[in-house]
Amino acid sequence: MASLQQHELMQRLADLESQLAFQEDTIETLNQLITQQANQLDELKHKFSVVINRVQQLHDNQGPNNTNPADEIPPHY
Question: Which element (helix H / strand E) includes 2?
Answer without folding.
Answer: helix 2-60
